[in-house]
Amino acid sequence: MTEQTADQTPIRVMLVDDHKSVLWGLERLVESAQPRMAVVGTASTCAELLSKVVSAKPDIILLDLDLNGENSFDALPELLQLTEAKVLLLTGSRDSSLLQASVLHGVRGVVGKDESADVVLRAIERVHAGEVWINRAMMGKLLDAMSSGAGKGGEKDPEAAKIASLTPREREIIRAVVNSQGEKSLAIADTLHISEHTLRNHLTLIYEKLGVRNRLGLFAYAVKHGLAES
Length: 230
Hints:
Blueprint lengths: L10 E6 L3 H12 L5 E7 L2 H11 L3 E4 L2 E2 L2 E2 L4 H7 L3 E6 L4 H9 L4 E4 L4 H12 L4 E2 L1 H14 L10 H5 L3 H11 L6 H8 L3 H15 L4 H10 L6
Parallel strand pairs: 1-2, 1-3, 3-6, 6-7, 7-8
Antiparallel strand pairs: 4-5
Helix pairs in contact: 4-6, 8-11, 9-10
């Protein structure tokens, strides 16, 4: 692992899991990545997370979906109002609809609890760097779920007005993002023959029009509503 911020400031990580043994293991894992990362807080319930997150000032929140029967998905709206931290789900859940909804509500990545320590650390670094993270197996499940639920009747689709507001160029950009297979913004901009700055401006407007928060949310939205197709 070689990625690190230029000023050597560690990535501030908050860990949220209802099992003390898992929290202990995650703390040791993040500590093993010093000085690139540092644990700035832990929580085992949604209430504890919401009460600690402002003072902890994390860059990344590594969040388990199931907190002793409590679904942390329900706390996402309030959590994302309290902090600018990026949320990375660390979960054993195989509920594709729940993972899809989490992405659409602002989660920046999903990593399975069965992944290796190196993958978890890399996911933290990538999400902190502004990228999205989701492994191929989970992406396949999300795509299957979204494809089976995608509506073809535009008149009945409550999102039809949002989609209709997109310009042809914006639709082209959306297709490029969806088909980029996780490439960085510069590579996507090159394929569109525009600057990275221009691409970011387009994406900001697209996010506002569609009501999504990031590239992962845009990916999920585009596949669900058929915007990835030519």
